[in-house]
Automatic annotation (TrEMBL):
GO-annotated molecular function: acid-thiol ligase activity
Bias kind Low complexity: ranges: 133-151
Protein's organism: Actinoplanes italicus
Region (Disordered): 133-177
Identification of the protein by name: AMP-binding enzyme
InterPro entries in the record: AMP-bd_C_sf (IPR045851), ANL_N_sf (IPR042099), ATP-dep_AMP-bd_enzyme (IPR050237)
Top-level taxon of origin: Bacteria
Length: 177
């Protein structure tokens, strides 16, 4: 991205600033695609992409399906990568905050069917939490530093809003782009 309103860099950290600049462009870390109709679809942030043995898996589309198609059970969720059985590649799991009074029993199976129907990667496991760490509206986003623990793994909350409005991440491309 080149714009006069972008940050001049990280304060007192020229090395980190240099890692986000390339030939005058500021690398945002967003992964997106454009469909044939010209719509842009935000897939994920590069720091959140799960490196599986079958290729990259984007967490945001999986989260959207779980929140939309399993809304009777899922209040909120985060899809993260954890070490797989081979110790090298990751496998995706969902950390789920259930709806009040809902039982997450069978969510792995139901979620798997919905994800398969949408052409997305299936989950290796579902972990249940009562709440997610959240930044207060007056503070800075956690930027992956607010950690919570799922049994056996440590994961960080994403710095970007997930499924804002619980709709699709796809939006018409801006004019002239």
């Amino acid at each position: 991205m080149i714009t006069p309103s972008r940050t001049p860099g990280y304060r007192k950290n020229p090395r980190l600033t240099a890692s986000f600049e390339l030939n005058g462009f500021w690398l945002t870390g967003d992964v997106a695609r454009r469909d044939p109709e010209g719509n842009s679809c935000h897939l994920d942030r590069t720091v959140d992409v799960i490196g599986t043995s079958g290729g990259p898996v984007y967490s945001l589309p999986i989260e959207e399906v779980l929140i939309a198609d399993c809304a009777d059970v899922v209040r909120d969720c985060a899809v993260i990568g954890v070490p797989g059985p081979d110790g090298h590649a990751q496998v995706p799991i969902a950390v789920v905050q259930p709806q009040d009074g809902a039982s997450p029993d069978g969510l792995l199976e139901k979620g798997g069917k919905e994800l398969s129907a949408a052409g997305l990667a299936t989950l290796a496991a579902v972990e249940v939490v009562q709440d997610f760490p959240r930044a207060s509206p007056s503070s800075s986003p956690p930027a992956r530093s607010t950690a919570a623990t799922a049994p056996g793994w440590t994961w960080s909350a994403s710095p970007h809003p997930r499924s804002a409005g619980r709709g699709s991440a796809c939006a018409p491309a801006p004019a002239g782009s």
